[in-house]
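User: I'm preparing a small set of examples for a lab meeting where we compare how different chains pack in three dimensions. I only have the primary sequence for this one, and I'd like the structure in token form so I can line it up with the others. Please keep the answer compact; I'll paste it straight into my notes.
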Amino acid sequence: MDSIELDDLQRRLKALEEENARLKAVGAAVLTERQKAESALAESEERYRTLFNSIDEGFCIIEFFDGPHGPLSDYIHVEANPAYTQHAGIPNVVGQKVREMVPAEADGWVELYGGVLRTGQPIRFERELVATGRHLELAAFRVEPESRKQVAVLFQDITPRKRAERELQQLNETLEARVVAALAERKLMADLVEGTNAFVQVVDPSFRWLAINGASAREFHRIYGILPKVGDNMLELLEDQPEHRDAVRAVWSRALAGEEFVETGEFGNPSRARRSYEMRFNCLRDGNGQLLGAYQFVYDVTERLREQERLRVAEDALRQSQKMEAVGQLTGGIAHDFNNLLTGIIGSLELLQTRLGQGRVKEIDRYVSAAQGAAKRAAALTHRLLAFSRRQTLDPRPTDLNRLVMGMEELVRRTVGPEIALEVVTSGGLWPTLIDASQLENALLNLCINARDAMPEGGRLTIETANRWLDDHGAGERDLEPGQYVSLCVTDTGTGMTPDVIERAFDPFFTTKPIGQGTGLGLSMVYGFVRQSGGQVRIYSEVGQGTTMCLYLPRHYGKETDKPSALAPKTAVRPQASHTILIVDDEPSIRMLLTDALEEIGFNVLEAHDGPTGLKLLQSDATIDLLVTDVGLPGGMNGRQLADAARTTRPALKVLFITGYAENAIIGNGQLSPGMQVLTKPFVVEALASRVLDMIKDGTGRS
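Assistant: Understood. Below is the structure token output for the 703-residue chain.
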């Protein structure tokens, strides 16, 4: 190879090397650009993903597909940010189809977003997502190209705003216009449209009006004689009316201190007709919670209050009518029962008189027995009525309920029969209670009989005692004063009571038993007796499950005593006596019977028809060992007053009160003085004689 060829070859090789270097440079530049592009794309995707995941609004991309309802009739969520769940209330939506998520609402959502997909026109709208109860504000636009069949949705939960709008609309439903402007950043009310019958005012913390509608200004002028306007200070306008100024300051100061409240009051000149207003106060705050002032909505409620008063009067009249109806029912029941009893008494006495006139004395015993039986039933009916009305004469004594219940266990067991299992549960350390033990025994037996009748096929009867400490809440539920009580509860597993039966259970003559099997006075007697004793009765019952009747009796803080009752008649042979007894009663037949009965024993008897006459005899020199007096006497002096007056001169005088109706205050609320006792009408002559002999033999009582 010659030199020329070698030079040419070197020249070509150099050219190739230069071209190779150029190509390498170009390749490196292209690679760098691609790397830059890939890096930029990665950064863009990262920014998108960060924005996608961190924005407060919910965001998703949905993709349409052909479903069973036709072409493009369903869509699936292909992307969704975390805020989706927060705003829509549906978690894990990626991969879910709209017709599976909200089948009842799917058609509406498909129609809206399908329109965006078909037209390419973005939309903004508000709609409720019924499935979650959320109100949403949404914007949707098509993801290009159209062939992707995708729509992007941006939305946020505006439920609180919608709720606030509804509340504001309800609050202002009588307004002819709405709050139309906003001040600063957080929608401060700036104007109230005129023409409403509500009085609206807005004031700042210095009591200067920021807004006042015409109705409110005119009413202010009517009340105070001053026409206010925006910018005026209400306290300065009322400077010469200090009484009104102080009242205005007091009520507005509460709202300006941050309190939201409603008040009703009268305003205006006392010499003219005053109107009543319902005032609703609220405070205004900025976005940072800073107090900007207070606003007030006021309504004239004069007519409404007058209508309420008319309604109250009507209700009072209705209650009075119901009371009179109850009285009519009570008197009708009493008249019916007493007519039956009086028929037996009158008929027996009439036949007794006839047989005596005929000399047929062998037949008189059955007429006497019939009359006595009817009279005893009448006495029992009277006692029940007095118990219901809480006017019976009680003999309260400190009583141990455990001992009383255990003493009656065998009687109750025989009464309810072998089909009913009886269980007695007594509480250890039970407090004593001040009660008429015999009346409580009657009440307990009555409750047990009712429980037996509620279990015709047998069951379980439980009698339970317990100490109860009632706080304000517990006492309020039972209509009692807070404090310590002793409870006596009777529980059965019987038929139970419906609410309407419970409500009427204590009404006189109300009974669910068949005709002839109950008078309807049993529970009313129990209720009256317990209430008269300072306690309460409560019914706890469920149909088919049984009933619990609970008596709540006040705790007695004195010592329990076993002092026996002196009411039981004695049948022992009585010694003859020669003491003098004064009988004071306004009923001649009673004086006659008492006199004959006591004289037959051997007592000397003096009589008086009223308190003043009896007092004259007691203030005389006559020897009187015992005063027997009715409590209710004519002449301006009752039996207790007579006894107290007599004891001023005869301090050792013994007194026996006889009464069928007496206020506790007259007898002494169960706290009789020593040497005083009570005998309840009606009574048998044997009981009177035994009681008189018991009192006489304890000492002559002479002074």
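A couple of notes for your slides: Residues 176-193, 387-391, 515-520, 561-576 have pLDDT under 50 and may be disordered. Residues 302-358 form the longest helix (57 residues).

User: Perfect, thanks.
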